[in-house]
Every structure is written in structure tokens, then in C-alpha cells.
Malate dehydrogenase
Amino acid sequence: TKPAVRVAVTGAAGQICYSLLFRIANGDVYGKDQPVILQLLDLPQAQNAVKGVVMELEDCAFPLLAGVVITDDPKVAFKDVDAAFLVGARPRSKGMERADLLLANAEIFKVQGAALNAVAKRDVKVLVVGNPANTNAYITAKSAPDLPAGNITAMLRLDHNRALSQFAAKIGANSADIEKLAVWGNHSPTMFADYRFATVKGEPLPKLVNDEEWYRGTLIPTVGKRGAAIIEARGLSSAASAANAAVDHMRDWIHGTNGGWVSMGIASDGSYGIPEGIVFGFPAVCSNGSYEVVKGLEISEYAQSMLNITLKELLDERDGVSAIVG
Ligand code: NAX
């Protein structure tokens, strides 16, 4: 058998991890022939809860689970890791302002970025899930100057999957048949789900939908506000679907997409006028363990106006954390 890969997961006692850890241990990310060692990070007060989750992992008798580390120290959690899912974050507490939330998370991701920089494998693949995911990824990258900025990504895949499913329902197609969908920008209600290039078995999706008003007035806000709708209905935020999107993101990055497009939060190289370094949702194609942003797409006036809105939000977030990352 292959030597085990090491996968760090933070926020291990939380709800997303209650699904995510079992998917990773089952081989859904690295494949059914690849043993994994899970290195779990959570706060000191959550260590006991993590132990309980690990008891359940043991009780699944996963053949691929080659070991588990439980810690409250990022340098232990990230030691020699091949991949890291940064799920744990500070939630908004009652009366907490947005600015304070940004700063509280900036402190967390500064520490974790520095720890990754110190002890992770040099080609570690990092996925930031904890919100505000794009800006947390931006801080992680800035705090890990010895790692390639491109190796630190943010999760837009849940928005991508939400949009796929809404389009599929609208036209009565299977979501797997929808290709070349792009979700741009911030993982927030300002994200821009762009169907202009999408096709279903070669047919243009906009032509199949044939309802631009529905697209702009219903599809986009439905996807943007889906997280809030789930909280409203379930009393808890999306967890299994978020874990599923994290699995999709990392699996595709590792194994490739055969030319297919996915949406990933990526440090901009200046493409599409997005300032360098801003972690922005872009369409990307994955192959051989890396990815490329899809370049040269035409940006219509409407698309540009949508990109401007989500970019402005990210620039404001960046300004909000400038005291911490400079
Ligand atoms: P939970 O509150 O259930 O769990 C969070 C866990 O993180 C807790 O166990 C907590 O102790 C731990 N934690 C907090 N600070 C930590 C730190 N500094 N180091 C290590 N662990 C720490 O949240 P859950 O529902 O699992 O959601 C986790 C994060 O994902 C939240 O920030 C949430 O907003 C975000 N989401 C992001 C999504 C995306 O698409 N990017 C979608 C789903 C989700 O809303």
C-alpha cells in the first residue's frame, strides 16, 4: 500500500467536520487506495468533543484511516501535512460588529498561516472554509510567505454546487451535465454565478433557461442567500453540503477535472482586473495536482457590474484587516 498522506482539519469538533472527517477517512478526497492520517485542531475547550468524534471515527473501522492526531496547537496539527482544511473560525456572537468579526478571524488565520509556513509540506494544498473565507485565505497566504500563494485557496464550491442544482431543476437536466459554470468573487451574498459560458450537452445554458429575468432576479439571489435560507429552516448553518463542497474542491484539485470548470477562491494574478493577491472566486481547470484560472473570457457590462460589487466587498474586507497583515 501507499504511504499515508497527512491531512489537517481545523474546527474538528464543529458541525461541518462532523461530516467532513468521515468523508476524508472514507477515501472521498484522496481516493480508495490512499491511506490518510487526520491531524485535528480545535480550541482547548473543544478537545474533549474532538475525542468523542474520534471515537466515532474509530467505530467506522475505515480501512484507509491510518492514524489520528488531536491537538490545540497549530504547529502540531500542520506538521508535514499534504493538505489542510481550515474550517474552524470565530462565529459572530451576539452584538459583535462585522469589523470585530473580521479582526477576530484575522488573528486566527494569521497564527495558522504562520504555523503552516513553519511546519507544513512545501506543496501543501490549503482550503479555507471558515468565514469570511476569502479574506481568511488572503490573511493565511500573507502569513505564509514561504508557501506559494496559489496553494492557499478559499471555498466557492458550495455556491457553485448550489447554482448547478438550481439551474438543473429549472431546465430539468442532471446537474452533472452542466459544464462551464463560473462563480466569481466573494463567498457571500455578493457572489456572481455566471451562466453565460455554461452548456448542457453542448447547448448553451442561457438558451435552455431562456429567462434572463429569472436568472438575474431569482437564481442569483437564491444562491446568494441560500446559506441564510438553510439557517432559517434548519436552525443551524449548512454543514453536510459544506463538507461535500470541501471534498469536491480538494478532490478535484488533487485528481483534476478532465478539462471541466470548477469555481475556486484563488489569489488573483491580476486577471480580469482583480488586484493581485485578492482571493477571488474564478473559474478554474484542475490537472496534475494544480489548477489554472480560465483566462480570456469576455466580460459583459452586466457581468462587470456584478464583479465590481463583489470585488468592492473584498477590498473593504482587506482594508478592515490591514492593521493585522499590513
Ligand atoms: P461550528 O461552530 O459548528 O464549528 C466550528 C469549530 O471551530 C468549533 O469546534 C470551534 O471550537 C472551532 N474553532 C474556533 N476557533 C478555532 C481556532 N482558532 N482553531 C481551531 N478551531 C477553532 O461551525 P461550522 O458549522 O462547522 O462552520 C465552520 C465555518 O465554516 C464557519 O466559519 C462557517 O461560517 C463556515 N462556512 C463556510 C462555508 C463556505 O462555503 N466557505 C459554507 C458553510 C459554513 O457556513
The chain has twelve helices and 14 strands. The first strand starts at residue 5 and ends at 10. Residues 10-11, 13-16, 41-43, 46, 87-91, 108, 129-131, 133, 155, 158, 187, 227, 237-239, 242 surround NAX (CB under 6 Å).
